[in-house]
Amino acid sequence: xxxxxxxxxxxxxxxxxxxxxxxxxxxxxxxxxxxxxxxxxxxxxxxxxxxxxxxxxxxxxxxxxxxxxxxxxxxxxxxxxxxxxxxxxxxxxxxxxxxxxxxxxxxxxxxxxxxxxxxxxxxxxxxxxxxxxxxxxxxxxxxxxxxxxxxxxxxxxxxxxxxxxxxxxxxxxxxxxxxxxxxxxxxxxxxxxxxxxxxxxxxxxxxxxxxxxxxxxxxxxxxxxxxxxxxxxxxxxxxxxxxxxxxxxxxxxxxxxxxxxxxxxxxxxxxxxxxxxxxxxxxxxxxxxxxxxxxxxxxxxxxxxx
Amino acid sequence: xxxxxxxxxxxxxxxxxxxxxxxxxxxxxxxxxxxxxxxxxxxxxxxxxxxxxxxxxxxxxxxxxxxxxxxxxxxxxxxxxxxxxxxxxxxxxxxxxxxxxxxxxxxxxxxxxxxxxxxxxxxxxxxxxxxxxxxxxxxxxxxxxxxxxxxxxxxxxxxxxxxxxxxxxxxxxxxxxxxxxxxxxxxxxxxxxxxxxxxxxxxxxxxxxxxxxxxxxxxxxxxxxxxxxxxxxxxxxxxxxxxxxxxxxxxxxxxxxxxxxxxxxxxxxxxxxxxxxxxxxxxxxxxxxxxxxxxxxxxxxxxxxxxxxxxxxxxxxxxxxxxxxxxxxxxxxxxxxxxxxxxxxxxxxxxxxxxxxxxxxxxxxxxxxxxxxxxxxxxxxxxxxxxxx
Lengths: 306, 389
What we know:
heterodimer; A: mainly alpha; B: mainly beta; Lipocalin; four-stranded antiparallel sheet
């Protein structure tokens, strides 16, 4: 009996969490060593640029030699691969949003004591098993892919000798079909995809419109008026900025933005459907269930020890 | 926290957008201001620099400036670590645009094609603008001249013939190939030879502008080609060098498949042909049957310009700003130029030139370097010198 009371008072260390933490730090360590030895440029080229660029060329070679079809297929493929991350991101953002009323209560209660407020907020997040930053990680993972695609498309549509040199250096040695497809036929609906949209209107409007729609779909409603106002201004700013940049970018890149936004909306819809298809309580209160599971695990452990 | 995350997300997106806008993503240093394309004619070196101006330098007087055609097209956009100097536009000057191919000098004119979709002629004596001949799209390759006519290919795949005296088109309509032309045409054997990215080399009648024969190389030809003793030498994306009979278009031989694209005009010297590939290798093959003489010599950095003979030596330069002396007999290479401070002048991507044993190279940052490979310290002069910068 005395032993069981002692065990109950001792803070429980979840071995799974410890293992996860150790593994994370080990991976970070390995990554730092590799980057310092090999160099960031080489890693970026070999891990991001070359696979994306060769993948795009491969799809171009075997999907009717149409750049727009190739970029659609690649974007779809990448979005599907990263879909679990997107689902995770949506779940996390929803869980964080679900805590907003309780955060507001805390703000009301400890508004004058900033230190206490932060402590209580952290406590709440810990209790609910929600990390406000967990929605950030999937986006960060997708960011290099997004940048890599940007570079890959620019390189593949090579319009200058330097760009073609860059393409030539990044093609896999065994990719023999390249001799047949280089240079890529970059004309789509009468537009040279390597040059900006000649109308300066059509593609920028499409980019801005689809960016707006996608942002609207992905932005979570906020109960905080300040936050809601910020979201609203972002929903207008981003499409305008991307629309403006679409006037300067090669048309091929602008088309990629449109396709990516459309596919993004589709994937978002699918992801939300999948989340909503599961139990609603899983979405809103994932942590409560997890806590219960952990508590059960803890009691089993305690019972076992007893 | 939600606010924090949202703010972080906004900041992240803004950073990405800003990077995209300025082209500062980790990339391969794409530079769209052209290369420093040069040619040597007698005692004068003519160049169009990547800084947007054209110059004539006196080779008898340590590369002193004879004239400069400064324009109003200096890039004022924010760069990525490359210092951008503010410029004052010169009124009424024709922007030269990005120039990659060597200019031609003939009939008192310096002629070159540019990204400004024009063939531009400057007075070789004074540097004044003589005339411009508008073409349909940008020009990447150099200009060939024969019998007072300039020939140039465009990225729309058209070949234009322009009379240097009247600056009017010679043919009733431009010759059309199936894809973009980045290669410099060659006049010889009574024909005009043009390599296109449609995989074909065209032999064109100089007077009529009609096709005489075509040869299919099996891949796009993006670099310059060469003509020696009635044989055309060309290579490209198919990773082979081809020797083609210039009178019939029949292939004489081709090399085995190499590791990278052939890029740059080949050089024939002492029964051997020397050429370069994009992956930074110099190849030496037999002139009569195309068999390799030695294993490819690896240099540091990509190569887009063929080797040149400088006296008895062969010289090749790379994107990394290194200049090598190649031992043609043994198939070995030594760096003769390109210390860290030299590399700050940029890489050497445009076709070099040589005269009287001196090699002249134009760098991607607009410098022109004169090297004497026979000297222990080969740099003779650099334009602009540190005092002129």
